[in-house]
Design a protein that fits this description.
- This protein has 13 helices and twelve strands.
- It is an alpha/beta fold.
- The protein has two domains: 13-251, Aspartate Aminotransferase, domain 2 (3-Layer(aba) Sandwich), CATH 3.40.640.10; 256-357, Aspartate Aminotransferase, domain 1 (Alpha-Beta Complex).
- The strands form two sheets. The protein has a seven-stranded mixed sheet, with helices on both faces. Strands 8, 9, 10, 11 and 12 form a five-stranded antiparallel sheet that branches.
- Helix 12 packs across helix 13 (338-357).
- It is globular, with a radius of gyration of 21 Å.
- Bound molecules: pyridoxal-5'-phosphate.
- Residues 3-289 form the Aromatic amino acid beta-eliminating lyase/threonine aldolase domain.
Length: 358
């Protein structure tokens, strides 16, 4: 059982089929093909909005390029202190922003609260020595597995509008959030003020396909040049578009996300029935963050289960992990089977029973 992340599995079958189909024959290179044009139109339909779309191969590239279009070299981009953009991308956003900085703020469950953002903005000196804030970036799903509601996004969007900040969403797990909320892509993005989105598809079934979706045309102006300089104008671009075609056809992306989220709920329900197990944050998408007795963690590890331990920095106030406990992260994917969930729960139960017997 490997629940380390949702990118430990390959691509899903419809995506691979679409890829194989697009493989035959010759088409213009560098994304100047019909398949790519069709996918761009598809994004506009899905989001019910005119959009500029740039296909890239990694989420880091999508985030770094998106933020570089929103923040000048002297600017500041606010994000959560645990955000992927600040913590897990080796400084790529700052590199591509050419000197601009990310500022991480605290918040329960990886979420930024509008009041916290506003009071941080109020605290900044209005002097030339201070880098001016230019953008706000949120992760949907957050790094703690929870989901911003459209109203929460709207409240942050209002702060952005008031303060003249561009609003970016890192949607590495966009589909998982979307099906969890049961809203439309428009309701989760531009209707709440999102200017630019990193649309993730790799984790939810693609081989390597992500998109920068730009709602605010001003941010699209130089994106082709930025992407080229980042090595993200893909020569056989049609094979990126093909993955997204397989992903979107028959709402395959939504079915994949629903499955992953369901597996997460099942796992969370099973684990929380064990003595001494509780959830650090509610399971709202495809990630489960249980606090487990150390002995159970040890038994799981010894049996070969794979997952990550997690940081406690975004726990709710007053919530503490004792020395006998471990906070872990389990990520479920479109490919997770009921059997894997059952086997993991069996192991956890056995570990828990052994602990009780000692
Ligand atoms: C929140 C978030 N953003 C972005 C990414 C994309 O990163 P990568 O460059 O590995 O595709 C990830 C992947 O782990 C992620 O969890």
């Amino acid at each position: 059982m490997n629940f380390a992340s949702d990118n430990i599995v390959g691509a899903s079958a419809p995506v691979m089929q679409a890829l194989v189909q697009a493989n035959a024959g010759a088409m213009p290179a560098y994304g100047n093909d019909e398949l790519t044009a069709g996918i761009k139109r598809r994004f506009a339909e899905i989001f019910d909005h005119e959009v500029a779309v740039f296909l890239v191969t990694t989420g880091t590239a999508a985030n770094a390029l998106a933020l570089s279009s929103a923040v000048p070299p002297w600017g500041l981009c606010i994000c959560h202190e645990e955000a992927h953009v600040i913590d897990d991308e080796c400084g790529a956003p700052e590199f591509f922003m050419h000197g601009a900085k990310l500022k991480g703020l605290p918040g329960v469950g990886g979420k930024l609260a509008p009041a916290a953002v506003s009071s941080y903005l109020d605290s900044l000196p209005k002097a030339v020595k201070q880098m001016p804030p230019k953008a706000l970036s949120i992760s949907q799903v957050t790094e703690c597995g929870i989901v911003y509601s459209p109203a929460e996004i709207a409240a942050l969007g209002a702060v952005c509008r008031e303060r003249g900040l561009f609003f970016h969403m890192d949607g590495a797990r966009f589909a998982n959030a979307l099906v969890s909320l049961g809203c439309t892509p428009a309701e989760m993005t531009w209707k709440q003020g999102i200017d630019i989105l990193s649309f993730g598809a790799t984790k939810n079934g693609c081989l390597m396909a992500e998109a920068i979706v730009v709602f605010n045309r001003d941010l699209a102006e130089a994106m082709d040049y930025r992407a080229k300089r980042a090595g993200q104008i893909i020569s056989k671009g049609r094979l990126i578009a093909a993955q997204l075609q397989g992903y979107f056809d028959d709402d395959h992306w939504l079915a994949n996300a629903r499955h992953a989220n369901l597996m997460a709920r099942r796992l969370a329900e099973g684990l929380t029935q064990l003595p001494g197990v509780r959830l650090a944050w509610p399971t709202e998408a495809n990630e489960v963050f249980p606090v487990v007795p150390k002995r159970v963690h040890k038994a799981l590890q010894e049996a070969g289960a794979r997952y990550l331990t997690w940081t406690e920095i975004s726990l709710p106030q007053g919530e503490q992990i004792s020395a006998d406990e471990e906070l872990i992260r389990l990520v479920l994917s479109f490919a997770t089977t009921e059997n894997e969930i059952a086997s993991f729960l069996d192991l956890a139960r056995a570990g828990s029973a052994r602990q009780a017997a000692e």
